[in-house]
Structure formats: structure tokens, C-alpha cells
Amino acid sequence: MFTDEYFMKMALQEAEIAFEKDEVPIGCVVVSNNRVIARAHNLTETLNDVTAHAEMQAITSAANFLGGKYLINCTLYVTLEPCVMCSGALYWAQISKVVIGARDEQRGFINKNLSLHPKTEIVSGIMENECSLIVKEFFKAKR
Questions:
Q1: Which PROSITE patterns does this UniProt record tie to the protein (predicted)?
Q2: What gap in Å lies between CA 34 and CA 50, rounded to an integer?
Q3: Which one of 55, 81, 121, 130 is the catalytic residue?
């Protein structure tokens, strides 16, 4: 029952909330022991804050929940590959696993030849089509 797809669907629900708020539709959840401990979506427009990416919001929320700054034994499910800023935050948080829906060839950390913490496992391509489609629909409507 608790598969990568199960939790990615929750991240996609967060992306849909962002879409409805006219935010770039990226969502994520942080999971510990098969329990969602944080949910977030982009809030850069709402908060007028360029750092208010879904991942940054989720890292802060999860750290507050756990009572510490490290997200060891946690998994972040995110609909779009994290940017350089978010990958840096994930590195410092020492998150154990990151599951990515769709790649971001232009702004994602992978093509920038960056890596996460050496102990962080990365899985990509979970519900890739659905995660990619919502972003494409958002920017198509903007043009």
C-alpha cells in the first residue's frame, strides 16, 4: 500500500493546490516511517518570497515536526526535480531519500552536476507523465 506512487499522488495533490493558487504547480510531502509528516507546495507568489519553494516549505515543516534540523530516515516526494537552492537545502538536511516525479532539464540540480548528501538515495520518474503534465498545463495557460 505505501508505495512511491502512493506518496507521489499526495505530492501531486499539493501541486494541484498550488495550481489553483496560481503558483507554479510543484508539490511535495515528507514521509517518516510510512507517515506523512509534512506537506507543501510552492508559495513564492503568495508570500512574495523567491525561497518559498515547495521543498523549502516541506523541509522546514518536517524539521519542526521532528524537533531537529536533520531529516535522517525521511523521504521527500516531489513532483518536479529540485532546483539548485532546494538541492542544497536537502543536502544540509541530510535527507535519506528523494523521490522525483518529473525531471527539470533546465533548472534541476542533476543537469547542473550537483549531488545531494552522499547517503541520500535518489529515485526518479515516479508518475513522471502526471507530474510533467501539470507544469506544462500551467505554463501553457500563462502564454
A1: CYT_DCMP_DEAMINASES_1 (PS00903), CYT_DCMP_DEAMINASES_2 (PS51747)
A2: 31
A3: 55
Instruction: Write the CA distances from 113 to 51, 91, 99, 104, 116, integer angstroms.
Output: 21, 14, 18, 13, 10
Please enumerate, by residue number, every residue annotated as part of a binding site: 53, 83, 86
**C-beta separation of 6 from 29 below 8 A:** no
Residue 59, pLDDT > 90, answer yes
Q: Are strands 74-80 and 97-102 parallel, antiparallel or unpaired?
A: parallel
Task: Say what the pLDDT of residue 143 is.
Answer: 82
What is the predicted pLDDT for the residue at 1?
Answer: 85
Is 128 annotated as catalytic? no
Mean pLDDT, residues 72-82? 98
